[in-house]
Amino acid sequence: MPAAAPARTGVWLIGARGSVATTAVAGCAAVAAGLRPATGMVTETDAFTEAALPPLGTLVFGGHDTLDCPLPKRAEALADQGVLPHGLADAVRAELEAADREIRPGGPLPGDTRDEEELIEAFAADIRAFVRANGLARAVVVNVASTEAGPGDGTLPPSSLYAAAALRADCPYVNFTPSTGLHHPALAAEAEAGGLPYAGRDGKTGQTLLRSVLGPMFAQRALTVRAWSGTNLLGGGDGAALADPRAAAAKNAGKERVLADTLGTVPEGGTHIDDVPALGDWKTAWDHIAFDGFLGSRMTLQTTWQGCDSALAAPLVLDLARLLARAHETGLAGPRPELAFYFKDPDPGAPAALGEQYAQLLSFGRLLAGER
Amino acid sequence: MPAAAPARTGVWLIGARGSVATTAVAGCAAVAAGLRPATGMVTETDAFTEAALPPLGTLVFGGHDTLDCPLPKRAEALADQGVLPHGLADAVRAELEAADREIRPGGPLPGDTRDEEELIEAFAADIRAFVRANGLARAVVVNVASTEAGPGDGTLPPSSLYAAAALRADCPYVNFTPSTGLHHPALAAEAEAGGLPYAGRDGKTGQTLLRSVLGPMFAQRALTVRAWSGTNLLGGGDGAALADPRAAAAKNAGKERVLADTLGTVPEGGTHIDDVPALGDWKTAWDHIAFDGFLGSRMTLQTTWQGCDSALAAPLVLDLARLLARAHETGLAGPRPELAFYFKDPDPGAPAALGEQYAQLLSFGRLLAGER
Amino acid sequence: MPAAAPARTGVWLIGARGSVATTAVAGCAAVAAGLRPATGMVTETDAFTEAALPPLGTLVFGGHDTLDCPLPKRAEALADQGVLPHGLADAVRAELEAADREIRPGGPLPGDTRDEEELIEAFAADIRAFVRANGLARAVVVNVASTEAGPGDGTLPPSSLYAAAALRADCPYVNFTPSTGLHHPALAAEAEAGGLPYAGRDGKTGQTLLRSVLGPMFAQRALTVRAWSGTNLLGGGDGAALADPRAAAAKNAGKERVLADTLGTVPEGGTHIDDVPALGDWKTAWDHIAFDGFLGSRMTLQTTWQGCDSALAAPLVLDLARLLARAHETGLAGPRPELAFYFKDPDPGAPAALGEQYAQLLSFGRLLAGER
Amino acid sequence: MPAAAPARTGVWLIGARGSVATTAVAGCAAVAAGLRPATGMVTETDAFTEAALPPLGTLVFGGHDTLDCPLPKRAEALADQGVLPHGLADAVRAELEAADREIRPGGPLPGDTRDEEELIEAFAADIRAFVRANGLARAVVVNVASTEAGPGDGTLPPSSLYAAAALRADCPYVNFTPSTGLHHPALAAEAEAGGLPYAGRDGKTGQTLLRSVLGPMFAQRALTVRAWSGTNLLGGGDGAALADPRAAAAKNAGKERVLADTLGTVPEGGTHIDDVPALGDWKTAWDHIAFDGFLGSRMTLQTTWQGCDSALAAPLVLDLARLLARAHETGLAGPRPELAFYFKDPDPGAPAALGEQYAQLLSFGRLLAGER
């Protein structure tokens, strides 16, 4: 009797034609095929070999987007910017094309006359169709769309429409952006009752990652941080989206929360996010930390982080999709503060220091393994 | 019946007229008198209120040094360099003079004809006399002298002579420098048999402190560090001492050990220590870390740490003296890897990540409290 | 017959109790007395020995301010922040007190019912009285007050009232700030007719100084600057004043003009000025320059400038007062683009590269010498 | 009657298979064909349109090298490292192959029994044959080989053998490296008598370029530089060559000469060159400058330059070849201090500040135009 084909797991990306999504799809294929090492994927380290996560080769990608640039073309453009290695887009063209075929139009677009309920239902139908057509065990919905401005007038912002669709389609949900998503009051009851695991929000990829180890260092050493100032320079879609002060405010709230939580106080200083199109997807983040040492001596630490935003985010997206898929499989539901390691603004109850978050993540991995 | 005077604890500093020692003596007095906050002293945080550590006001300072500049004058010079706040030397002049009276000539000086045994015995006699004359419950010996070149010809280097004297005088011992101290094979048996707690070596005050949180961050995120390069610029006595390549080698070994231990591999790149007298006691450390992200994307992190070496070291010296004094009081003996938080090259068995070291330190504090 | 006492020259400071003014008064006294070297004063270099500038010891200080903190106390506060060396305030107390006695209330303060004409006349009367009472050959008026928001409703902003008063009192005028000063259309005719030399505006002390040498470097090497982004962190009065976006806009216009003038294009990127009170008068300016090299290779330069704003500005203020006093003596009138070396936004006709500005300054020095 | 074909000019590269040479050959072809802008080439700016320099399309490349990797393959490898844009090697394959055919074996290789005279004659014969076979008007010899250790035992180092061959073949000579080249005493008389223009040495591409504008800035502002420290991290062939302390010493001498010449004093501090293979051809240079401002205030400037070494060097190599070819055509001979703009260690008589060097270069361009 032939062995059954392994179960396949869906990853439904909101913003499926963006840089992060394209990098995740291309990268998953490249790593699964052994073309590239799994650098940046924590779920591929030894600590997770027993966690029974869905193998990379069993992930199936689809998603919503309001743009219509084909994924292979998007991947070529990313290669020209140095985000993807040259030749990779060609090597994984089949996988990019397969994912491209599973992308459905997002919304609402200008002129769209559907009301909230109609949009949610349409999105949920797309997701259900994806799961059914591909014979998937389940699909995890991950929001990697551009940051939207904070909620305003009581209507559901697009990120929350998609989150509601995920609940309706019975899918675990990850919010990798600072957008509202499942954090909308109108969705709270449904999220709680849904029996689905979810996690968020706002992926911790660069400056905030650093802050989550430096803040605890100052606190543990009893050094008094007087001012923590930061500037982020980035281009790409994210740079443009964050040029909207309301979007930037949402992002900065997460950045500064990490400081408050790890330092125990809110130091002076602010954080800028500047749109610099010339930098493309390459982000530079400068932090200047003024702190007092013994007897009031004035000291400083400066950090400059230069990274490719999509390459930092994509492996975390793959990690989260796998972890939530397995959590769903084992019957876990509700918010997962054990995944705080990945987020600027994690679910309540999580520690703020990266080291402790990592310890919780390892525990979570053991929990997933144990329930196998 | 009047209350008994509280027990007093000695802190015997090898290098007692150096910047670190002077800052420790002046700072202890200033903090004990409420003139300055206890910034940088972990033992003054809430976590240690139950640990029954000797209060700062009960510490009595003395030590060995081969120089003879009076401590009050040394403190004035440090104030001129901005290491100590102006006016502080005057405010704690009595305490500086008291410590100054307890400093004995170190050695061996050129022309000194005493052999190793005679030197050890002379040093031990000085320490015993200090304890007796001041009616101390005990004294902790702390090496804060300039880094000496690595051991060479089988003879005991000065740092080991002092360490042997500490054992002989029945004193707990801390090696805050990369010098050999108690790590000499000739002292191993005696250290083990002595029933004394000891800790070391090489205080972790700046660049290595940073590395002990950044290294784990890269490892936990599965980011591949390809090269970690560093340059330290500093003047003062330490800059001059470390201009000796053999002394610098001892220091660098500690710096690079932290990388190897936290990253799991030894990345490319080296570390320079440059003597720049113009900088005085103010140290600038630049680190450049080249790492690979997902799909081999090339990223970098740079850090610039600008701090005052003595102000970084002095509160740690006070912490260590208090912790080892209390450990001795409770009967603990042998190496204390629980104090790895403070050292570049801690005693075996300690974790390498600062967060875990901090957790162990807190446990140690609870242990000390429990044995009260 | 006794030799005549040397002529004395007045320096009338608008903002006479501010950090820059206090540093200029104290520093002039210290350098004149030989207590400190003339670091940062270009007019004390060999190139100006023949220029017949008024000796530092013959300068007499006075000015307007709306605050009333005595200069000696202000100097003590600056010493506590590390802006002035300790002990200096005491050493030059007599000179600080003398200047303090010559400071008159500025305005208009809230509730002041005087109209523009009355204010100008009152200020001019103060200046004339200062010149007469001290038997001065002349006085140079220098605006070192906090940056004011850009001009708005057609009324004269305070900086222009003071500038008009300088004209009326027949005094050369320097605008060391980005405020309007003499650049107000209502003052144009009077400035031209006045027969007085004047110069401005906005002292070039840190980030813009750097840009005035780096911009030409990129241009001369035919390297294409794609984006030039900057962040300034500073506290003190200037930090607070520049937290007003309109004041910051005035300052940034000067900063970006230097780039446009030296690069020939306006690159992407903006400049932030952040008020960080914890930094006091110590300013940190970070610049990130993304440029293209041969064949489109992407390169970057980053600079971090850490300086004390008042200590950077004060020697330039003294330079300018001396140069304009001598220019007045030799009969020069009108705008002095030869002093572009000192300004972000110099008078028309000046080159933008610091090297060329320096060459013009040297020529100007020879001109002043020749007309002796 | 058909127009005569334009004269063609040879560029004979010592180290013709290295990164700089490969980039120069590929880049020249790309710019000549209009595929890429001439970023970084000063001779392509408007200031040189009248200078009658040989057009890029008329340059013919050849050279010596001891390696045998074909240029097209070398170009592919550079593209993989991000030094050359992807696709460029293919687009200019014909030109790379043409240059490849003109590369002759260098020497002496191990086991080579030829004496100095034989080597010089062999090299000169290669160059003469190149000129003759290609019907060139002239050829300029440019040394872009790896830095060799300083001269030792009186024998001619390889760079001097090649320089002697250039003289013998009647070719203008450029030394773009810190190697000895024409600076050997044994070649002095011949160089002087040769009637050939020559220039050198050691191209100024990054850290020293910066120093040549920052040094003058400090000097012109009368700010006292107390210490100037630097660290260079680079991989590639140059990184490996400079890991030899003697080669690094040669390079550093040039770097520090610029400081001494522009500051008028030699500040404290040294410069490190570290071989970090992981960085490939991408160089990071960090400088830390401690300077005193007014009244002794302690300030610092830090710069971090991140550039691609070959992309910085190649356009300067093309500039120099064209300028010396035209100088030769107009009959100019001897050292050309007017080209100091390009060198760390220029010919005697040149100014040290980049701005003045640029002015001299422009004058030189006018001279070349005038003699047309």
TrEMBL record, chains A, B, C, D:
Gene Ontology MF annotations: inositol-3-phosphate synthase activity
The entry sums up its family as follows: Belongs to the myo-inositol 1-phosphate synthase family.
Q: Name one Pfam family in it.
A: Inos-1-P_synth
Q: Which organism is it from?
A: Streptomyces uncialis
Which segments constitute the Myo-inositol-1-phosphate synthase GAPDH-like domain? 206-310
The UniProt entry's GO biological process terms, in alphabetical order, are: inositol biosynthetic process; phospholipid biosynthetic process
Protein name, as recorded: Myo-inositol-1-phosphate synthase
